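thoughts on my protein:
***
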Amino acid sequence: MRSPRRLIHPRSIAGSALALLVTSIFHRSWKNQQRGTTRHGMLDMACHFGTACAVTLPVLPNTEYKREFGLVAIGSAITLDLDHVLAARSLEVNSWMTMPSRPPTHSVAAMIGLAWLVERIAPGKRLWLAVSLGVGSHLLRDLATGGAPLWHPKRVITWPVSLVAATLLILTASAWFLAGLPIQKRSIIAPKRRLRQIAHRLNTEQSRRAPARTVL
């Protein structure tokens, strides 16, 4: 078993800082746009993209599947807003950008479900962690820009910017730590399969150690 990796790449940190700077510029422009316009929607997407980049870049040096990890993290951060289109039942930007509140799928439960699904599809690559970064960064930004039904579908909550910033930092640090751990051959979020594997291994070892019976 390999020892845990703890890599901090200066270029990744610099890229994360640059992403935060560009995102802050986009965010200021987004605040000045009329809600429901195409420009407002595009800037919102750019902000989610930048936030996801900021939390993902420091983690990439610790991952083995860098390309897949990055694509899943960024992709999940952007595609989460597709639930606006489904909830509004319209392709018009004004319809799904002016909803009273964000859809119920903007929640921790949805993030966990999506992470579980991705891990089932591609086990052993730790892409569930990429989903947690992407969707997590999206939800955190939403909490500071109008709120989201984070815990309950009918209860929209908001967080102050300071709390969101601190949680983003904790999210990044936690992902960085977990990404450095050795990857198991089996999915770490499939405990039943893991337990069956351990039981089979124990039975095999016991059968090997058992003395052979002499047939008379």
